[in-house]
Design goal:
The complex is a heterodimer of chains A (about 120) and B (about 110). Chain A contains no helices and eleven strands. Chain A has about 120 residues and is an all-beta fold. Helices cover about 0% and strands about 55% of the residues of chain B. Chain B has strands at about 5, 10-15, 20-25, 30-35, 45-50, 55, 65-70, 75-80, 85-95, 100-105, 105-110. With about 110 residues, chain B is mostly beta strands. The chains are: A mainly beta (about 120), B mainly beta (about 110).
Chain lengths: ~120, ~110
Amino acid sequence: TQLLEQSPQFLSIQEGENLTVYCNSSSVFSSLQWYRQEPGEGPVLLVTVVTGGEVKKLKRLTFQFGDARKDSSLHITAAQPGDTGLYLCAGSLSDSGGSNYKLTFGKGTLLTVNP
Amino acid sequence: ETGVTQTPRHLVMGMTNKKSLKCEQHLGHNAMYWYKQSAKKPLELMFVYSLEERVENNSVPSRFSPECPNSSHLFLHLHTLQPEDSALYLCASSRLQGYEQYFGPGTRLTVT
């Protein structure tokens, strides 16, 4: 069972369109990160959200953390070919003792923006 | 040099060879990770080191052997690999285990 479900798995759109991708779980996370990975390269950290309901903006990218800290969304406005890549979300969970944290990755959304 | 570096970026090896992958982080982090990423598959966590101690080993075959001599360096020693081990191997580091991770560019490994 995948702890973090990302949807859609694949998304192909035209330049200039808007899009939203989702990251969902039944677990409550202490924090959640979004990464973008280009082919043949390592994932690059885009943002970390910590507070339920938090919204962060990075140029044309808007990230939102759910009120219950179980889900997150990434919205891209006016997508460009340079936005093409694999978008990964990762959530930080603590163990039962609350002292050790583990980062769990979703499978990612592969976005293609066509010129 | 800043961030997380990995060498080599590309490696082709035969099934009887022995090679090592190197990772170095310049961020002052205390946790380091090895991941395997195969085509059309999600990231697979292989090993976790926290404060230079191995804290996680996710059922990785013994032909992969990690080494963490200090908090800045991480190695992955490879021997008698199989063609299905061909993948992108990614190293990452974080301030503490479970915190946001910073990845290196990866080593593209091809086993022939």
